[in-house]
Design brief:
The chain is α+β, with helices and mostly antiparallel strands. The chain folds into two domains: 3-26 and 439-583, no CATH class; 37-129 and 260-430, Beta-lactamase, CATH 3.40.710.10. It has helices spanning 3-11, 41-59, 117-129, 143-150, 166-170, 186-189, 193-197, 219-226, 244-257, 261-273, 307-310, 316-327, 334-340, 410-438, 476-484; strands at residues 18-20, 69-77, 85-89, 110-112, 278-279, 313-315, 345-346, 352-354, 359-364, 371-381, 384-391, 396-404, 440-444, 452-456, 464-471, 474-475, 497-509, 515-525, 529-531, 550-551, 554-555, 558-563, 569-574, 579-583. A hairpin with a 4-residue loop joins strand 23 (569-574) and strand 24 (579-583). Helix 2 runs antiparallel to helix 14 and helix 3 packs across helix 10. It holds the Pfam family ARB_00930_C. Residues 430-584 form the Beta-lactamase-like ARB-00930-like C-terminal domain.
Length: 587
């Protein structure tokens, strides 16, 4: 804390509290991904608890309303070919209802997805053409918008189409209205007379949209409506939810490829993953849960040109397969997945952000600065509700599909409950696996150098902890931290040196099946004061110091583990020290 800022705080009674520093991990996974989730006793116990909660507090609760809604709930992992937990509940009234759909739901039962469709829309775009056009103006690909841009006369009443990019459409940063006539248009939802009784002025016939929910708007009507619709904001001002942005995204992609959008979803996603219970338009009634009349429930509804915003249908089993494919980059290159699974804008809630088309949330893992990032998409249409969620750092995801008299927040309430129980178990299982694989003592084969390294994990600390590090008879912990923090050598004995290693995702696999994995070390002095409350400074900015200590072009903070064909660690090398240390037997 600067002296000036300390004086100001003191004057106004705002002196921040100080305490010993805590570890500041790098953004991303704290430990390597779990190899086999099903083998973890912590996770099995957590899933048993989740099952008990679902049965006791949802299915058999008189206050949950579960008698009038059905749901299919699955939890999946990128490392497992099948869901690690499934739970299906059929509403009591569905069995006696006059329905053309199923009488009992399971993992193959088809539901409507609503806005979860947008995940398919964005992934179809990425699979078809990649993201090189992400920053291109949408006017490059939609002639109607190019003509509108040329005749624009007002910033308030006409969107600046030339500033709206393909990426802004996918990330809710376009500044466009939510919908044209599809949702929220009172003349469509309430009729012409009711709004007048509520205090709205009568409208001239020319101001009443000719289409919307029924009949749906075709392309020409959509652009005629958009020409009359003012923007909500200038593009890239703030995240503002827009369905019409995804309709425009589909128009742009169709222009680029010359293909129908439904055809592209099928060839990019449905066929490669064999998703036989996922549909772009209404499937056979016998496949789905339909809690009443097929039209009144919106089962049979079609959104026309707006289908890419929220028209799709799927089973929970298919969505779990879809989620595993995203986690494992089965449909697009891995680097593109990494770009895609990142927050792109902030919201008023510092824990909540927005992606393409994700809602993004930082999940607190129980310790200061330890987070995982959750990417979700929720959907609701008629009598259907859906939630699709991924947590890449933990290689896990969930899907909940519901139908009937569903509460608005059922999906998120169940997800919150699962998160409270399962996330800590996943983190602990990952820590234990890391301890089993990487923990132990490593020594040089040349005893004359007196070089060794000891690694262990801690239940409350992130990453792999280096508890002892000797190189050429020198304690490297204060050396590494002292140089990193620009501490005078005379004061190195006062340091509380911390070195912790985090997975980088960099890996080489050799022809014999052995692997080399790179980890990045973070060097910290935990004796430094942890100052909270400053307006511009932070005690957690370790990303700035990466690779800031280099010896002969090799970073001191880069460690490479060698694993044999069975996955057992054989050795580790700190690159700057140019000395391979073998793992001692029994550790």
């Amino acid at each position: 804390m600067s002296f000036l800022w300390w004086l100001i705080c003191l004057s106004y009674g705002l002196v921040p509290t100080t305490q010993a520093s805590t570890n500041c991990p790098l953004y991303g996974p704290l430990f390597p991904k779990l190899g086999s989730i099903r083998q973890s006793s912590e996770i099995r116990e957590a899933l048993n608890t989740v099952e008990q909660i679902a049965v006791q507090y949802v299915d058999n609760s008189t206050s949950s309303g579960a008698g009038s809604y059905s749901y299919s709930f699955e939890i999946f992992a990128g490392s497992e070919p099948e869901s690690i937990w499934t739970h299906y509940w059929t509403a009591n009234d569905l069995r006696s209802m006059n329905t053309t759909g199923v009488r009992k739901v399971d993992g193959n039962t088809v539901y409507r997805l609503g806005s979860v469709t947008k995940v398919f829309t964005v992934l179809t775009y990425l699979a078809q053409v990649g993201n090189r056009s992400w920053n291109d103006p949408v006017t490059n690909y939609i002639p109607e918008l190019e003509r509108m841009a040329a005749t624009r006369t007002s910033s308030i009443f006409n969107p600046d189409w030339d500033s709206i990019t393909i990426g802004s459409l996918a990330s809710q940063m376009s500044g466009l209205i939510r919908d044209y006539s599809l949702l929220g248009e009172l003349t469509q939802e309430l009729g012409i007379e009711t709004p007048v009784k509520l205090g709205f002025p009568p409208l001239p016939l020319a101001d009443i949209p000719p289409c919307g929910e029924y009949p749906v708007c075709d392309r020409q009507q959509t652009f005629a409506g958009l020409a009359r619709a003012p923007p909500s904001f200038s593009s890239f001002t703030t995240a503002a939810y827009s369905d019409v942005g995804f309709q425009l995204l589909s128009y742009a992609l169709q222009n680029m490829t010359g293909k129908d959008f439904g055809t592209m979803i099928s060839e990019s996603i449905l066929q490669p993953l064999n998703l036989t219970r996922t549909f772009y338009t209404t499937p056979d009634d016998a496949l789905g849960v339909i809690p009443g009349n097929r039209f009144k429930t919106t089962w049979a509804g079609d959104m026309g040109d707006a289908n890419p915003t929220g028209n799709m249908y799927a089973s929970s089993s298919d969505l779990a397969t879809f989620g595993r494919a995203i986690l494992n980059s089965k449909l697009i290159p891995t680097v593109m997945t990494r770009r895609w699974l990142k927050p792109l804008s902030s919201t008023s809630d510092p824990q909540a952000m927005v992606g393409s088309p994700w809602g993004v949330r930082k999940l607190n893992l129980g310790q200061t600065y330890q987070y995982a990032t959750e990417f979700n998409k929720a959907g609701s249409i008629g009598r259907y509700s859906a939630l699709f969620s991924l947590i890449p750092e933990l290689d896990i995801g969930l899907v909940l599909l519901a139908s009937g008299n569903v509460g608005a927040n059922l999906g998120f309430q169940l997800a919150d409950t699962v998160g409270e129980v399962l996330v800590p178990a996943l983190l602990e299982a990952a820590r234990q696996q890391a301890q089993d694989i990487y923990g132990g003592t490593y020594t040089s084969s040349d005893s004359s150098t007196n070089s060794s390294l000891t690694i262990s994990t801690d239940p409350v600390k992130p990453g792999l902890g280096v508890t002892r590090w000797i190189s050429n008879n020198t304690d490297m912990l204060p050396v590494a931290v002292g140089i990193q923090t620009n501490t005078t050598q005379a004061d190195w004995d006062k340091l509380s040196a911390s070195v912790r290693l985090y997975p980088t995702g960099l890996e080489d696999t050799k022809t014999d099946g052995s692997k080399y994995q790179a980890f990045k070390a973070v060097f910290e002095n935990l004796a430094a004061p942890n100052v909270t409350g400053n307006p511009f400074t932070t005690d957690c900015s370790t990303w700035v110091g990466i690779t800031s200590v280099v010896y002969g072009s090799m970073p001191l903070d880069q460690f490479v583990f060698n694993l044999d064909q069975s996955g057992r660690v054989v050795s580790v090398e700190a690159l700057a020290l140019r000395n391979t240390l073998s793992k001692s037997k029994g550790t």
